[in-house]
């Protein structure tokens, strides 16, 4: 009798948990539709893995190739920028994101994230560099932040860069394959969103500046591998997406000092099919705005702020490496309410960016950079 009671109690708990997970999945799993409204125009051909891009005032493109090159493209010509930092091109690491300074008109500065070997230990970790672009040469190079410790692991470097309107630079670093060590520990780098002043100094109002041994540049933690980040121009909020494991890719609204849970809570499982944790929610840990089941392997993300695409205005665009399409995520009250597949079969998308003129550009492995157009 006693054994029967415990068996009944065990089955009740399992079925209740499964029911809760199924209910949450039902609420979150929005079917994706396909749109034929949009096409593309190839504007920068013959790129291998164009990881990041930004737009120069003269209309030229600044492009990172993951292998280690920084390229300027104008009038059909590619020019290699000299003096780019050396990269530790291993696994997912290499030359990552590039962004013009918000004060580029006066300071001619660029911000670059890349896999750096700086330090005594073997391997590398993600770094943020500021440099001046003089002609086709980088000068006045300064490493503003270098994560530690180095590791020879090849996964989860991050990394994206954005700026707010108060002279802060934000950048992401993945947990470097150390999921049980780095993301939940604010005394260690990795699995974090960081915030610095534009000169690399620590803002006095960062959340952990008064906490012993904490990495004072941290803005939020508990992340896995954020490879998409943008600021909602209407609200000023920072949004990030990141790779989950098998399932559980997330879109997160970033808050000061917040913990996003990895790997204590997750909607994903191990690639082998085994469970990482049975916890999906926990007090003190943020829930995602949206998560994908199955994973789409997101890379690159941009809000549509301009008026070139009226149907997409105010919504979010995300690239898919796995399924090779551009996804439009339509938002209502900060929640994803509709998903739409654009440019289906385009290729493995690395970056999505809105140019100053309001057009959307997408970088694609083995193809180049394309412009989103209305058919």
Protein model, in words:
- By secondary structure, the protein is mostly beta strands.
- The protein has two domains: 1-30; 34-374, TolB, C-terminal domain (Neuraminidase).
- It has two helices and 25 strands.
- The strands form six sheets. A five-stranded mixed β-sheet has the order 1-22-21-20-19, with no helix packed on it. Strands 2-25-24-23 form a four-stranded antiparallel β-sheet, with no helix packed on it.
- A hairpin with an 8-residue loop joins strand 8 and strand 9 (125-134).
Number of strands: 25
Quaternary arrangement of the chains shown?
single chain
H-E order: HEEEEEEEHEEEEEEEEEEEEEEEEEE
| CATH topology value of the largest domain | Neuraminidase
| CA(first)-CA(last) distance | 70 Å
Shape: globular
Percentage of residues in DSSP E strands? 35-45%
Q: What do we call the CATH homologous superfamily of the largest domain?
A: TolB, C-terminal domain
Mean pLDDT: 92
Which residues form runs of ≥5 with pLDDT under 50?
5-24
Q: Which CATH architecture of the largest domain is right?
A: 6 Propeller
Major sheet details: 5 strands, mixed
Strand order of the largest sheet: 1-22-21-20-19
- Helical/strand content category: mainly beta
- The CATH class name of the largest domain reads Mainly Beta
The domain tally reads: 2
Helical run tally: 2
Percentage of residues in helical conformation:
under 10%
Write the layout of secondary structure elements.
Blueprint: H1 2-28, E1 32-34, E2 38-45, E3 50-55, E4 61-65, E5 69-74, E6 77-80, E7 95-100, H2 104-107, E8 109-116, E9 125-134, E10 137-146, E11 161-163, E12 168-173, E13 192-197, E14 218-221, E15 226-231, E16 238-242, E17 249-254, E18 290-292, E19 298-303, E20 316-320, E21 326-332, E22 335-342, E23 349-354, E24 360-364, E25 368-374
Parallel strand pairs: 1-22
Antiparallel strand pairs: 2-25, 3-4, 4-5, 5-6, 7-8, 8-9, 9-10, 11-12, 12-13, 13-14, 15-16, 16-17, 17-18, 19-20, 20-21, 21-22, 23-24, 24-25
